[in-house]
Amino acid sequence: MSVTVRIPTPIRRVTNGEDRVAVDAETLQGVIQAMEDQYPGVKARLCDDQGEIRNFVNIYINGEDVRFLEGLGSSTKSGDEISIVPAVAGG
Q: Is residue 74 in some structural domain?
């Protein structure tokens, strides 16, 4: 089961410049762990010390914000597209 993860520019230095990564996992937590196994350091960019999604990182599965689904427990299936969108601040 392959899930495609779209990697934002600020995280691409951890993924060796890759803008998309394919992983096999059944939950978002599994996706993040699979990415960490393949690209060490990616999890620290996405999750805080308690293992939760960082406040300034938005993650979507097929356009749905995971905060309104089941968070890290959100299910994934083959063909899903996950988008990681760092929050933008400014004034």
A: yes
